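REVIEWER CHECKLIST
Item 1: Sequence provided? yes
Item 2: Single chain? yes
Item 3: Sequence as submitted:
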Amino acid sequence: MAFWTHERDGISQEHVHDYDEYFVVVQGQYTLLIGDKKISAGVGEEYLIPKGMAHAGEYSVGTRTIHAFGGKRVKRESEE
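Item 4: Structure as written out by the authors:
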């Protein structure tokens, strides 16, 4: 999980994950950029980005988002 509060307008550069990413906008406005598409997400709106999908984003000052990242769990050592 990641909780972000953006202190200025900005852009996240295009990138790809080897796991799914789910996010929800808590405050402000976030624009998801996928290929030629611009997907606007406001307060309470959410989006799932499947693993392997190239994406970027634009956000304005004060925007707050929560991101959950999926993937393989870390193998835990057994407690004895």
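Item 5: Key structural point noted by reviewer: The CA atoms of residues 6 and 65 lie 9 Å apart.
Item 6: Recommendation: ____
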